[in-house]
Amino acid sequence: MNNSGRVVYFNGKFVPESEAKISIYDSSLMFGDMVFEMTRSFNKKQFKLKEHLERLYNSIKITNIPIEMSLSEMEEAVFKTIELNDPLFDDDDEHRIMIDISRGLLSIYQDVVGDNKGCNVIIADFPLRWTVSGMGKLFDTGINAVIPSQKAIPAYLLDPKIKNRSRIHYLMANIEVSNYQGDNNWALLTDTDGFIAEGTGDNFFIIKDNQIITPEGRNILRGISRDYVLNELSQQLNIPAIEKNIEPYDVLTSDEAFMTGTPFCILPVTSLNSQKIGSGKVGEITKKLINTWGNNVDVNIIDQIKKWNLSENKESSGTSPYKFRKK
């Protein structure tokens, strides 16, 4: 078994990454009963960690997972996990923190299998480059957003504002889009009313007449990066930003579009279902937003991800959170 040397916080202890395992009788495996957060660093400093943890604890509260660990204790455990793993990271690596909270063993197994009773708290730390491998070129070409038949699950059925691991609808959308003709295809879900909702792990924006527009927050996961663009970057650049219902028509008649997500921050969207958005090239306001974000954190975001592409020297052809192999 490959031993990376990295350690994982696992219910109060630090264990080798390869040994961090939960029971097959855990509620997360039986029901997808797990909430989680994933963060990133810039120059090894965590970005918006407190906001991620606040959203995590909102998810814990709503799903009624009986955790005894406070938010401040969780934050301390995150920093300790980073401290222990940092010597194993290259100088140009960034920390990708993954926090998983499961309810634990189903009650019918608690006195049978002898595993940990109560919820599981798992904090892993691995190089961000894993997540963004192959994305460097997308800052130049942009993404082709594809609307699949799979719909976003509306909040009245299962609230997407709870960041949870029950995400089979995301996977079904990705599988469908992976068989769409061409390259750089990413799923863009609509809700049950036909309005644009979100990507499968990212939020969506358009720019029209020098105004930033993003779907309303009802039927989506309200991203930390989404909030940063809406409430901080837009004000810093003095660009109006609003939330409203938008349809595919609005996307196709917009001037620019982009996705936001924690690992890559902002990725341009230059077409929808292979039809050009605006000029079909990366827009000027999108560039300005990316560059300003990079200046704020003292990292050239685009160059960093492109450099990782070169250092990896190959792009994975397998399944990722954003891409599936074609049939």
Per-chain topology:
Blueprint: E1 7-10, E2 13-16, H1 27-31, E3 34-42, E4 45-46, H2 49-63, H3 71-85, E5 95-102, E6 120-127, H4 129-132, H5 138-141, E7 143-146, H6 168-178, E8 185-190, E9 196-199, E10 203-208, E11 211-214, H7 224-236, E12 241-243, H8 248-252, E13 256-261, E14 265-272, E15 275-276, H9 284-297, H10 301-312
Secondary structure: number of strands: 15
- Class by SSE composition: alpha+beta
Dominant shape: globular
CATH topology of the largest domain: D-amino Acid Aminotransferase, Chain A, domain 2
Q: Key features?
A:
327 residues; D-amino Acid Aminotransferase, Chain A, domain 1; D-amino Acid Aminotransferase, Chain A, domain 2; 2 domains; 10 helices; 30% helix; globular
Report on the structure:
- This protein starts with 6 loop residues before the first strand and ends in a 15-residue tail after the last helix.
- The radius of gyration is 20 Å and the shape is globular.
- Strand 3 (about 35-40) and strand 4 (about 45) form a beta hairpin.
- It is built from ten helices and 15 strands.
- The mean pLDDT is about 95.
- It has about 325 residues and is α+β, with helices and mostly antiparallel strands.
- It has two domains: about 5-125, 2-Layer Sandwich (D-amino Acid Aminotransferase, Chain A, domain 1), CATH 3.30.470; about 140-310, D-amino Acid Aminotransferase, subunit A, domain 2 (D-amino Acid Aminotransferase, Chain A, domain 2, Alpha-Beta Barrel), CATH 3.20.10.10.
- The strands form two sheets. Strands 7, 8, 9, 10, 11, 12, 13, 14 and 15 form a nine-stranded mixed β-sheet that branches. A six-stranded antiparallel β-sheet has the order 2-1-6-5-3-4.
